[in-house]
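Q: Sequence in, structure out?
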Amino acid sequence: MTITVTNLRNEDGVVRACMTRDEDRFPRCQDSTQGYRAVVPAGQATTLRFNNVTPGTYAIALLHDENDDGRANRVLGMMPREGFGFSNDAPVNMGPPDFEDAAIEVGTTSLHQTIRMRYML
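A: Exactly. Output:
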């Protein structure tokens, strides 16, 4: 699985990526045993790879953690201060997309997704 990341606004911090089959853990992927995670310096995050992925239905979430504090910082507890992106460029309406909107089918051949980072501020 290869992910091309576009629209990073700077090279500060890291890009955190998670790819999970666990609908209940998407988009944070915390404690998910059905997925893959990666943390890459933002300056090197134009291409991310997950190798030897077990076939199945997954959703991908990216966070541009500009201050590298391990969490998605928010303004007034609601609006994301840092960049984010999802597989299928899934729509964001008053919160993260549903798993189904971001779901992709991973088989036994190589797959490519382009994920556009979005910034609210």
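The chain is about 5% helix and 40% strand.
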